[in-house]
Amino acid sequence: MKIKLHFFIVAILIASSLFAQRRQSDSTLTYQTILPEEKQSLLKNVDIIANTQMNFRGDYTDGEFTGAKYTFEQFRMEIKGYIHKNIFFRFRHRYTSTFEPQSIDKIIKGVDFAYLRFDLSDKWQLTVGKTYADWGGIEFDLNPIDIYLYSDIIEMADNFLTGAEIWYQPSKNHGFGFQILDSRTASFDELYGSVPGLTAAKIPLAMVVNWRGNFWDGKFSTIWSYSLFTEAEGVGKNYIALGNLFQAGNWYVAYDYKISMEDLDRTGIISNEIPDSLYAFAVKNTLYQSHWLRVTYKLSEKWRLSLDAFVDFADWMDDLDPLKTENRFRTVFSYIPTIEFYPWNDINLKFFLGYVGRNYQYSNFAKTRPGLGLKDYSTGKLMIGIISPLHIL
Fold it and tell me: Taking the model in full, what pTM does it have?
């Protein structure tokens, strides 16, 4: 009886196993995948990237330690690729920015990119959507995760705007872009307040012309641009950026000169420093300039030394204030020495140790004018962290 019982149990187990295998096999044949098979081939042309810069940092003001914390300085999730041989899409969301929809383009501030690019031919491209304002300079052209601190003009600008661009590439060494964009993402009143004597432009647009050049087999390259913004009737902003990059051997040297001539304080640094008790609106006729330098030396395949050094000038050219005796408002000196370590050759990930120092110096007018009374000060950040454009797909 025991032998018959054992045989019966084994027979049941074998039959159950065969039945289970048949059902499992049937399920793969019966049910469709979530992503249709005919669409799966598109993934080979799609990238998903988590652009990340995170660190542990200690903060200093005037040399005094004020605290330490972990921070995500940058986290931008990006999806891009071809949905057709002639249609490229790109979407990037900055999670370290506000999630509020903007009043002009109706998309949240944190969205950097949401555009389609149509490859019209080998030399011509058309881009439509929210994209970067291609206004030149090496600093702005770098991936944001590789920037430890932006210069004033870039930090305060609306760098991602909605509009259209035509790109022409007549040769492999030279390309030219022309953009027509919204001049801002927020309304005139939100940015400037009620400015006496000014009426907001009915068509607030920006025009950007860009040239990218390559010389000496790529050893020297340029990103130069001119931009014209319309803010109010008869009021605008002229912006010039001249980016230059030299690469040879283990050396990488980049230099930008940027100048923003603003009929109305679009950058906003001076207006933000002036309290509402003096002027409760954006001031006129401001001038901002920046000299930005990055020098990097590759010690080995795994180690690099780098120094960012830049100076930002803010001038108030208007005569609104009867007590103003000079145009210079403030000067900021910044320096960022870093050492970077790349532990693996098969992934773009680096550990870094760096210091961000800033020295703010105000003019005599800004210091002594009643109601202002600004003072010189310095800030510092000692950082250790990780940077990577994590390539998920």
Answer: 0.86
